[in-house]
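Ticket #4471: structure export looks truncated?
Reporter: QA, pipeline team
Priority: medium

Steps to reproduce: submit the single chain below to the structure queue and open the exported record.
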Amino acid sequence: MRTALLRALWSSVLTFAVVASCALVLRGQPARPVADLAPGQRTDAPAAPLGADRVARLLDAADCWTDAAPAASRTVPAHVVLQVDGGHPRLRGEPWVGRALHHVFVKPNPAFRVYGFCP
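Actual output as written to the record:
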């Protein structure tokens, strides 16, 4: 019982820390327009043709990172390359970033597969 309570408390604290950190860093900075992702491309549309290197092309096109965030630039993710429910990996906008961060750092979601975060 105590372990479950500690896990729940830790999960809440970690979620708050991630959200608060992102909010503080992004405060006052304009969001990157969706049109900047790719010419004529929406975040909910596939950003590359189907194929084995689809994820690599998505990550490269959006200048994403797949490991720790770039420390020198203090970059906070505004986009994520994410696969949901076995669908195609897509470059998704800010509404999905919080869910992906929660998946990676707090509680894994079996429907998600995060490939990388992007500025």
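Status: closed, not a bug. The export was complete when the record was re-opened. Leaving a note from the reviewer for reference: The chain is about 40% helix and 15% strand.
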